[in-house]
Structure formats: structure tokens, C-alpha cells
Design a protein that fits this description.
The chain is of the alpha+beta class. It is built from 1 helix and 4 strands. The strands form 2 sheets. A two-stranded antiparallel sheet has the order 1-2. It has a two-stranded antiparallel ribbon with strand order 3-4.
Length: 158
């Protein structure tokens, strides 16, 4: 028998040769805490993982809520109520002198009523034991102009 050995057309293997047997290079391990801002580990469509710059996503804006009907009504009524209060204060400031005069007139009326009620009682009490005194007539003429005008008068004794 004849010994045939197969001869290979490939040259003998040389370890460390970058063409035939490349030495595997370990990628550096980067911890997630060491990544600068804007850089993240991403997976590409082919399955490779690599570092890439990314744009930060802004937080989603909150959905706009419709304004309740009571808030619209309150907002529309606020100026009206405020103007009404201002007008009332303005009117009271103009009416104050008349109100003061009216209170003085009411006090005068109360004094007149009190004097008209007490005068006969006091007259009877003081006249009791002297007998009949001559009747005296007093006539008054009082004139006044306007509702709050000053009154003038004359007294006639008879």
C-alpha cells in the first residue's frame, strides 16, 4: 500500500498571526455610571450593542384640562360684584350728610313727642291743690323751607 498523505494548500498555522488566527480583543467594560450625559448603550438592528449619542426626550406635556363652568361664571361675576360694591360705597359717601341731618331730625321728633307726652302729666301734677288757674293761650307760627331747612317761628301769648 501506498501511503498517500493529503497535502494542504494552506500554509501551516501561525499563532498570533492577525490574518489566520486573530487574537480576540476584549472591548473595554464601561459601567453605566461612567457614561457622560447624552451617551447611552444602544442595540443596533443587527444585534450589536454599542455606545451612541442620544437626544434626551422631553417629559410629556400635561393634557390641558377644560375650564369648569363654575370658574367661568365666577370670573364673569367678579367685576360686576366689585363695581356694585364700589358704586354702593360712592353713593353712601354722597348720602352721609343727608343721613346725619335725618338722624338729627329724628331725634328732634322724638324730643317733641316726649315733650308733648310729659307736659300734660307735669301740668296736672303741679296744678293739683291751687284751684282753677286762668287759662292761657299760646299761639305759635313756624315756617321752614325745604325738607331739612331751618325752621323759624314766633310765639304769641294771649
Amino acid at each position: 500500500m501506498h501511503d498517500h498523505t493529503l497535502q494542504s494548500t494552506t500554509p501551516p498555522a501561525r499563532y498570533g498571526d492577525p490574518i489566520y488566527h486573530p487574537t480576540p480583543i476584549q472591548p473595554p467594560v464601561v459601567l453605566p455610571t461612567e457614561l457622560p450625559p447624552g451617551v447611552e448603550m444602544v442595540t443596533l438592528p443587527g444585534g450589536y450593542r454599542t455606545l451612541a449619542y442620544t437626544h434626551p426626550q422631553p417629559p410629556p406635556a400635561p393634557a390641558a384640562q377644560p375650564v369648569p363652568a363654575w370658574a367661568k361664571t365666577t370670573a364673569l361675576l367678579a367685576p360686576t360684584v366689585g363695581c356694585g360694591i364700589a358704586a354702593a360705597g360712592f353713593g353712601i359717601s354722597y348720602a352721609a350728610p343727608g343721613l346725619i341731618a335725618m338722624t338729627e331730625a329724628l331725634w328732634a321728633a322724638i324730643a317733641l313727642i316726649a315733650a308733648g307726652t310729659l307736659a300734660p302729666i307735669l301740668h296736672r301734677a303741679t296744678r293739683g291743690g291751687r284751684g282753677a288757674a286762668p287759662v292761657q293761650h299760646v299761639t305759635q307760627h313756624i315756617t321752614a323751607s325745604g325738607m331739612f331747612g331751618r325752621a323759624n317761628g314766633t310765639i304769641n301769648h294771649r
